[in-house]
C-alpha cells in the first residue's frame, strides 16, 4: 500500500486530499478546491470605467515597488480584475487521472473539484459519496456556478486559452502576498488553476457519482468492500473504510463527536481495522482556541472560553481509564458547550447591532452554523421584542433548506427526536411559515425590494467576499459602524476585506469546531486500536510522545509517498464445507502437519474469495499422487512390497554410475527399481506390477 | 448447522405476523403483530413458545419490525412492556416515527369503542418506542459481533422494508409485506442479489396475477369525481396514516389535473399532523414524489383544508377524510350517520374491515339499514365503493423475487392456506427450490451453508484467476469468428469458473493454507523426488543385413550431437555430420536413426491424435521418451526375449503422469514388425522426403 498526501488542506472548506494505492487500486481521497485563493481576484467593481486606467497605473507602480524590494501595503487595486479561475489541489494535475480507479468523498466540500475531472474523457474512476453529500455537494457546485455567472456577465465571455493574468509577466508584478496565493511558495501551484466548470459539467459529475447510505456496503470490482460511516462534520460527511483481500483501511477525516445538526462521529464502526489514515488537520490550522476579534480599530471582544490544549490530554486520559468513561468524556468535555457559547455570543452581537439600527451580514458557508444561528437569532429577537426580518439570499437557499427538512436519517439524535414527535427538523420551517425568514435567489429579486427593511439579518454567500450577493450588501454597509459582519476565522480578513475599505462596520471573526480536538486524538486512536496509523508529520510534534497503545505510527507529509508495509501476504479464502469433507489429508513426515489436495471452483464474490466444490463427479483416475519428495529407502520399500506379495533383493554394488541403488524384483514377475537421490525409475514387465510398485513407492515417500 | 424457523403468526393466515428465526446461535423475531380479527388471546402470537420461563432477553437477540401496520407491530408494546422484553428492536426511520401513531390510534379505538380493558397504555407505547433503534435502507447494522442485518426497500407502505440477516455464512431474507410494482407514492421493492439460505416471503396474493394498480386507482377517482360532480359528499374513513396520504396524493393530483375546486377536508388535527411526518419522510417515497421536495413537497396538499364540525351539514359537494377507518366509532361514525341516508353521497371502504365494525357490515352485502345500537338505526342509501388496490405483490412478483434471489429454501407466510399450497407447488416445480408454508406455532428446520476460513497464497489465487480471464478472452474471440478453431473454448466459458487445484497445508497451531503445487516443496524445504517408469522394449525387425550392428554399439559410440538435449527434428543430417567426424559412427547411428524413424512412422499411425516429436536420437510423446538402446545389458530389459526373431531394443522412459499412455505405447511397440526394405539407400535423401510430409 502506498499513500501520497497531495495536500493537507486548509480548514473546513478545503479538506485534505490524498492519493492511495491499495490492493492494486488507485484511490483519490477527496477532490476539493481552495476557494480562499479567490481572494486574489477583485469582486465585481461597481465603477468599472473609472478604474481601468487606475488599474494599469497601479501595475506600473507595483512593478517599481518590486524592483525596489519595498512592499507597499496591499491595496484594492492590486487585486486581479478578471473572470476568476479556481484553484484545485496543487499537485493533482501532475497525476494522470485516467489511472484513478476510485474517488472517495468525505464531505460536500470535498467534491467541489470533481467536475474539473469528470468532464475529461479519460477520467473513468468510480466516485463514491454518501447520498446527503452528493445532494449538498451538487447544490454547492450549482451555487458556485451561479455566483460565477455574475463575473461572466460583467467581463463578457471568457477569452479562450490562457487568461492575461496568468501570464508570467503579470504574475511577477503581483504583490508578494497575492503572488504566494497564486503560485505557492515555489511557483509549483500555478498549474492548479482552472476555469470554472459549467452547470452541465456539474450534472455530468453528479451522474457519475454513486451515492451511498451510511454503512452501506458497496463492492468495487468484486474485491474491495467500501463503506462510509458518519464523521459528524457536516450532514452526510463520512469516514471511509476499505476492506481489501489483504488489508483493512480506514480513512479518518475531520470528525466531530457530537454534532448539533449532523449525525455524530460513528467511531465504533472504525474499530479494529488494520490501517488508519489520520487525516484530520483541524487541530493544527484551526487552533482550537476561540478567537473573536474585532477588526482594526474596533472594540476587541474576547469572550473567556476555556480552550483545552494538548497538555490537558494526560489529565483527560488518566482520569478515564475505562472505555465507557472515556467515551463519555470525549463527548462531554464541553466541545458542545463551547460551540453553544460561540453561537450565543454571535447572537448577542447581532442583537446589539440591530438594536442600534445596524444590519448584520453573515456570509458563513457552514450549513450547521447557519441552521443553528437561524434558530437562535430568531429566539433572541423574539425575546428582545425586536421585529427584524431575516433573509437568506442565495440561489440554492430554498432548495438547501427544504432538503434539510427531509433528511432525518442523516441528522443527530436530537433532530431525529423531532421527527418522532412530528415537529419540523429545523426551526427554519416555522420561521418561513411565519414570514420571519425570507428566501431569495438574488439580491435583485423584485419581491425582495418589496419587503426589504433595514435593519435586518442576512445570510448570504460567499465567505471569500469575492462573489455572491454578500459583496453587494457589504459595499452597502461597510461604512456603517452600527452594522456587523460575521466572518469565520481562517479567512484572511485583511485580504478579504481589501476591496471594501475603508471599513467602519464591526467585524466578528469566529472559529468553529471543525474536527477532533488535539487532546482527544490519542485516546481516540487507542480506542480504535489499528495496527498502523498514518499520521501527519506536522501533528506528530504536537502529540505527547508516549505511545502507550500497540499501534505503530507512520509519519507522512505533503507530497511525499510513503509505502506501508504489508500486514499479511495471504488471501483469506472460504472453503465450502462439502469441499472440506472431500479432502483426503496425508500426514507428512517432516513436520507436524498434514496436507491434502484441493480441487474446486474459485469465485470472487462481494469481496469474499470462495472455493466451492465442482458439481461434476470427482474424476477418480485423476485423484492420483502427483508429487513426491524425500529420498527413497529401499529397505522400507522392500518391506512394504513384501506385504503385497512382491519380493526381491537389494543390489547395492550395482552397475549404476550415479550412486544409484537397485532393488531387483523377482516375484511374482521380474522388475527393477533404480533409485538415486531425487529420481526413481521403475521398470517392470507389466503394467499392473509397475503400478503396484509405484503406489508402494508413493506410500514410502512423502507424496501428494 | 441448521436454521430453525418458528412461525408464531401469519402461518397459513393473514394477521399477527411473527416469525422467530434461529440462525447460528442467534435468535431474531421478525415482526410482532396482532390479529385484528380476534379479541381473545389469539390476537397475540404465543410468546411462551419462545421462552417458557418468560426470559425473553436471553431467548432473543433482537426484534425486527418491517413496517408500521398493526398486524406487524401491534403486539410490540405488549411484548416489550407487559411481557418484559428489553433487548434491541430495529425498524426503519419512518416505521419508528409512524408506528406509535398507529398504535395509539388503535388503542384509542379499542378502548373507546369496546370499552375493554386496554392491553397497553399510551406510556407503554412511548416507552416501547424508546427501545427502538432506527435504521436506514441498505445500512449494514452490526447487531452484535456476529449478527448483521440490513433493510431493503419493500414499497408496501412508507418505510416498509425487507430485512436481510446474516450470521457467519448463513443468511436469510424476511420480506415482510412488499410490492414489486411502483405506485403513485411509493417505489417498487428493491433488493440486491444476495446469497441466502432461506427466504421468508409474504404470499397474500399467492395465486392472483393483477393488472396495473393504475386501473383501479382510476376507478376510485372516477367514483369520487362522479359523486362530487353530482353534488354529493364523499366520506373516506381511514386510519391517520398510510392510506389517507396515499389517497390524498391521488386526489390532490387529480384535482390539479382536472382543475377541480371542490374542497378536500381532513378531519381534526390528527391527519394533518400525520402529513407532517410524510413531508419529512419524503425521501422514502417514489422517485417522482421525492423529486418534488424542493419546489413543493408533494405532501403539502394544495386542495386540502381542515374540517370543522359545522361543515357536516353545509351544502355542496366535498370530500372528507375522517378517522377512524372502518367506521368503528368516533368522528367517521358521526359523519356517516349524517351522510349515509342520501343516495348522492359516497362512502369508500378499505379492503379489510374488522368484524363488528360498520365498515364490515357495509362490505358484507348492501344493507339498507344498520342498527347502531338499540335505539339508533341508520338508513343507508349512499353508494359504497370498495377500494380494491392493495400494496401487496402478486404471484408474479413473488415468483420474480424468489427467482431473483434464488434462495436454497423458501417459507411462505401471510397468506391463505390453499393459495399458499399452489404457490409452493409452483416454486418447487418451476424454480426447483424447496418450499414450506408452516401453520402457526410450527417449526421448520433447514440446513445452512458454512465455510471454513483458510489462507491462500498469492500464487494460488493468481493461478485461479488468470485462467478465468483467458476463458473470457476466448469467449470474446470466439464470438467474433464463430466456427473457427476457437469453438473449443465455448464449453469452458459456459461452465464459468474453471476448476482450480491447490494443496491445503494444515499445520498444528496454524491456520490452514492453500498453496500452489509449485510452492509446496520449497515451503517444506525438500526436493522433489521423481518417479519414472522405464522399459526396454524389444521390437521385431525384418530384412536386416547387419543385425549385429546394435551389439557393436556402446555407450561411447553414441554421437555427441545426439545427446539428450537435442533440438526438435528440424535438425538436418548435415549438422550431424559436422558434429561427428567418424564415418563408422555415422553408419552405426544412422542405422539406429533409421529404426527410430520407422518406429516414429508406426507410432504416428497408431496414435494419430498425439503429437510425436522426432529428434535425431529419440522420440517424444508427452513425457514418453524412446531411443534405440545401445546397451546389451540395459538394466531395464526386464522382459526376456524368448523368440529368436531379430529384434531391436528401444529403451523407453515415461513419467508417472503418463502411466497409462506409456503402457499403451509399449503394448503397441511389442506388436510391431519394423520392416527395413532398402537398407543401402542414403537415408539423408529419404529423410528429406519424409520431413516434408510432416
Return the average pLDDT of chain A rounded to an integer: 83
CATH topology descriptor of the largest domain in chain B = Metallo-beta-lactamase, Chain A
Strand content of chain A: 15-25%
Q: Write down how many β-strands of chain B occur, each being a DSSP E stretch of 2 or more residues.
A: 31
Low-confidence stretches of chain A: 48-69, 286-321
- In what order do the strands lie side by side in the largest sheet of chain A? 9-7-6-3-2-1-23
Structural class based on helices, strands and sheet pairing of chain A: alpha/beta
- Report how far apart the termini of chain B are: 61 Å
CATH architectural designation of the largest domain in chain B: 4-Layer Sandwich
Which chains have the largest interface?
A: A-B, 92 and 83 residues
Number of DSSP helical runs of chain A: 22
Fraction of residues in β-strands of chain B: 15-25%
GO molecular function (chain B): hydrolase activity
Family (chain B): Belongs to the metallo-beta-lactamase superfamily. RNA-metabolizing metallo-beta-lactamase-like family. INTS11 subfamily.
Keywords (chain B): Hydrolase, Nucleus
Protein name (chain B): Cleavage and polyadenylation specificity factor subunit 3-II
